[in-house]
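BUG: 3D viewer hangs when loading the predicted structure for this chain

Environment: internal workstation, default settings.
Expected: structure renders.
Actual: progress bar stalls at 90%.

Input used:
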Amino acid sequence: MKPTNYSNKLDFVDDFSLKIEELGHSRIYGQILGWLLICHPPHQSFSDLVENLSISKASVSNSTRMMLETGLIEKTRVQGERQIYFRIKDGSLIDFMQKQMAHTLSLEHITQKGLELLKSDTETDSTRLKRANAFHHFLAQQLTGLIEKYKIERQS
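Structure tokens produced before the viewer hung:
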């Protein structure tokens, strides 16, 4: 994939949001997340998000609620101000990958149970299920090591 040079922050946000949309989230979810990754200050009010991203209040409300529920962002206050701000929660990307790893482990266990089921079934070819199980096993092992390595390197 060829890197893109961005002429402004919104170009980055648009590109980022399109990729997040491909991953199954709404484009606005990606816009908010992308903006919170590069905005200054790192915390943004509800109004800041509406204004800077030119999106509706309802969209901001729905997307920030989902991000809060998943722990990707958090609410914060600025001393002397009444409004609530949102920011990327420190460590949330690591938490997200650990949740993905848990899903991968679940799929490994499910495919292993499927293989046990098919042991006595002589009519079904288990080749595809064996490949799926091996793939999820491999991913689970690799992700665990990578996340731990990242945590260690990040501390230094």
